[in-house]
Design a protein that fits this description.
The chain has a 7-stranded parallel beta sheet, with helices on both faces. It is globular, with a radius of gyration of 18 Å. With about 270 residues, the chain is of the alpha/beta class. Strand 1, helix 1 and strand 2 form a beta-alpha-beta unit. The termini are far apart. It has a single domain, classed as Rossmann fold, CATH 3.40.50.720. Helix content is about 45%, strand content about 15%. It is built from 8 helices and 7 strands. The longest helix has 29 residues.
């Protein structure tokens, strides 16, 4: 798709992959709405993009709040004139065995990582269809949405759901000329490892979150190298432009994905 002149909304847009995708889309001539739960970080991100000449607005919203997301939906259209790209990127994580997860751990992860993208679809897809000008819906899932990751049970459950949502939409939205992309990276140099800072008090607050494993290169227990956000964001933008369904930026993930489906295939022989 042609990005220049299009409106794009990005959740989790104040930092990491979301911010970098916003910057790259703006460089291609898109008008950008960054959505985030952290006001200070969001203001800083908007200021940064505007300093580079981007047409950008910042909108504070908790993607896990259905009513807030529906109320948000009109604002990007009003601020940008139209919206053609929706990037459901916001995400959080907790670590540890499933047996040690509390109900609050499950609820927080599912609310943000699965309901958040669903809310994004509910809020924006009907408007894209009614607009009648095509477009693109993208999601940040994870390698953990394709292959089970020990110690990330709730995260895996949510991200498997996001991959499924993207795959279904990829088929259903063809008649509307609306494409779909799902990003499934391994480790990326973002601040998701400190996402407990945004855990709401009613779900235990920051101190209740079991932390995820250290994501840097020094942790040999985790597979895959650590990619910088710029590399992953560039691949994501290229996939949006080319209407590619999957973005798998880590070559190391290929063998794990293949083994999973080989295990499934072997079950037919039994």
């Amino acid at each position: 798709m042609e990005v220049a002149g299009k409106g794009a909304i990005i959740t989790g847009g104040a930092s990491g992959i979301g911010f970098e995708v916003g910057r790259l889309l703006a460089e291609r001539g898109a008008r950008v709405a960054l959505v985030d739960i952290e006001r200070t970080a969001l203001d800083r991100a908007v200021e940064d993009l505007r300093a580079g000449g981007a047409e950008v607005v910042g909108l504070v919203c908790d993607v896990s709040d259905h009513a807030a997301m529906l109320a948000l939906a009109d604002q990007p259209f009003e601020a940008l004139g139209s919206v053609h790209i929706v990037f459901n990127n916001a995400g959080v994580a907790v670590g540890g065995p499933v047996a040690e997860m509390t109900h609050a751990d499950w609820k927080w992860i599912i609310d943000v990582d699965l309901w958040g993208p669903i809310h994004g679809v509910e809020a924006f897809l009907p408007r894209l269809i009614e607009q009648g000008e095509g477009g693109h819906i993208a999601f940040t899932a994870s390698f953990a949405g394709l292959v089970p990751n020990v110690g990330l049970g709730p995260y895996c459950v949510a991200k498997y759901g996001v991959v499924a949502l993207a795959e279904v939409l990829h088929r259903e939205l063809r008649p509307y000329d609306i494409g779909t992309t799902v990003l499934c990276p391994m480790r990326v140099a973002t601040n998701i490892g400190t996402s407990e800072r945004n855990r709401p008090d009613e779900l235990g607050g920051p101190d209740a979150s079991p932390g995820v494993a250290d994501q840097d290169e020094a942790n040999d227990d985790l597979s895959g190298g650590v990619l910088d956000v710029g590399t992953v964001a560039a691949l994501t933008v290229e996939a949006i432009v080319a209407n590619e369904l999957y973005v798998l930026p880590h070559e190391e993930s290929r063998g794990f994905v293949r083994k999973r489906f080989e295990r499934i295939d072997r079950s037919f022989d039994r």
